[in-house]
Structures are given as C-alpha cells and as structure tokens.
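Annex B.
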Amino acid sequence: MSLSEVKKSADTRMAKSVEALRTGLAKIRTGRAHAGILDHVTVEYYGSPVPVNQVANVTVVDARTLNVQVWEKNMAGPVEKAIRESDLGLNPISMGDSIRVPMPPLTEERRRDLTKVVRAEGEDAKVAVRNLRREANDALKKLVKDKEISEDDERRMQDEIQKLTDKYVGEIDKVVSQKEAEIMTV
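Ribosome-recycling factor: predicted structure tokens.
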C-alpha cells in the first residue's frame, strides 16, 4: 500500500462515516413531516419484508401530515399496521387505498431527549473517524517498518491524516448542530 492509497482510503472511509451519520439522523423525527421518515419502516410483501416506499407513494400533504398512497389496494392494511407498529410513535388513519399519517407535535422534554440522541450519534461518528485515523497511522507505521517509506514521509502523512480527521470531525459537529436546531424549532 502506498502513501496516497493510505490517505485516499482514510478519506473515503471517513466520508462514509459522515454519510452514515446523516442517514441515521434523518430517521430521527423532528415534528415536521418529511417523506424519508418512513424509509426504514418495512412491510411484508408477498413473503418478504420491503420498505414502505417500495409498495406505496409517500408524499407530504402539509407540515404535519404525510399521505401514503398504496399501489395495491390489499396492501393498505399491512402498510398501516407496519407504520403503527414502527418505533416512530405514529398513528396512521386508513382512508381506502390511501393512509393519512398525522405527525404529533413534540413536547419540550421529548425534544431535549432527541437532542441527546443526536449528540450520542455524533459522538459515535467521531469515534469511528478517530478509529480510521488510528488505522491509517498504523498502516503508515507498517510502511516505515517494512522500509517502504521514510520516517519523514510518515510524519508528513500523519499530519495530513490529522487534517482529514479534523475536517471530518468539524463536518460531524456541523451536521449535529443543524439537526439539534431542527429538533428544537417549534
């Protein structure tokens, strides 16, 4: 493995950690309706579990209401049941082949709890980025030990990897603060 490969690998894996954080935070409910909130809800479809958005069209009616339009009439019941039994705390209302999903307003206490969850997710992402930095530094030490690079090259590359780490940790902080602001907005 060369110096550029070590850096490139660390960079792409750190970027994936930030992206995983964004995906995880998208599932945290903010009180406003958005179609992505039902992405991780699965429904039984001909014997296999599939996401709701693969058996229905999920649209935002207004700031507090989602509309789930199932493509097959016989799927309305299972989709409604899947939404009700999900960990989102939603109570869907069936209207034939479409389902209305009102978003209950968040209490102040629940908002504070959600910000703690967001901070914990952010901290987990930072730990992942730091672990990737450690792995990259270990790879550099191995290259020095195998006499493929000099110690000066190792120090220079460690500085670059530290800069990458700082960049991605800053990005994580930004994502977390945006999500906290979104949650705390009434």
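DSSP finds four helices and six strands in the chain. The longest strand covers residues 56-62. Further annotation is deferred to the next reporting cycle.
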